[in-house]
Every structure is written in structure tokens, then in C-alpha cells.
Design brief:
Layout (H helix, E strand, L loop, with lengths): L9 H22 L10 H73 L1
């Protein structure tokens, strides 16, 4: 099974790395005694989290649509293969009927030759 989870998406990986870098910068400022003019409060954290979740949902939606398109193409390919196979089976059935008729004719000819 292929692992195609959203955690493999390069955009999501970039967002996570960016968030980590921001956390490291904010953490270093706090350690060095430098305080940001706009400390991140709970409301800002919730807003940031909400925006990230919305982005994640949008990415998942895009992946679903891509997956649905891929599935639709696979179904079309299978339907085409089935149609081709059906046509070949019909041609083989017709050839089999022709062979049966030829064998019946040969059998009749052999009976006439023996008589």
C-alpha cells in the first residue's frame, strides 16, 4: 500500500518547518531576554492554528479531488479494456461458429466419400 498521507505533501512539510523555525526564533528571544513587541497570545495561537487547519483541509480536499480524477481515469481505462475484450470475444465466437460450419461441411463430405 502506498503511503500518500498529507504528511508527505511538500507544502505541509514546508509549513511545519516554517512553524518550527518561528518557534525556535521566539524561544531564543525569550531565552536571550528579548521580548517581542507583540507576544503571541492565546487568541493569536488559536487564529494561527485555525488558519493552519483550514490550509490543511484545503490541501486534503485537493488531494481527494486529484485522487478522484485518478480513479475516474482508471475506471475509464478499465471500461475501454472491457469493451475491447468484449469485441475480441465476439470475434472469437464468430470464428468458432465459422469453424463449426466448416467442420460440419467436411464431416458431410467425408460421409459422401465413404459411401
Amino acid at each position: 500500500m502506498i503511503d500518500k498521507g498529507p504528511w508527505k505533501n511538500p507544502d505541509i512539510i514546508d509549513m511545519i518547518q516554517s512553524a518550527r523555525a518561528t518557534e525556535e526564533v521566539n524561544g531564543n528571544e525569550a531565552i536571550n531576554g528579548v521580548v517581542s513587541d507583540e507576544p503571541m497570545g492565546i487568541d493569536q495561537s488559536k487564529s494561527s492554528l485555525g488558519a493552519n487547519l483550514k490550509s490543511l483541509e484545503e490541501l486534503e480536499s485537493q488531494e481527494r479531488k486529484s485522487g478522484e480524477k485518478l480513479e475516474a481515469r482508471k475506471i475509464q481505462a478499465l471500461e475501454a479494456a472491457i469493451a475491447e475484450t468484449t469485441a475480441k470475444i465476439q470475434a472469437l465466437e464468430a470464428a468458432l461458429e465459422d469453424t463449426k460450419m466448416a467442420l460440419k461441411g467436411l464431416a458431410q463430405h467425408l460421409k459422401e466419400l465413404r459411401a
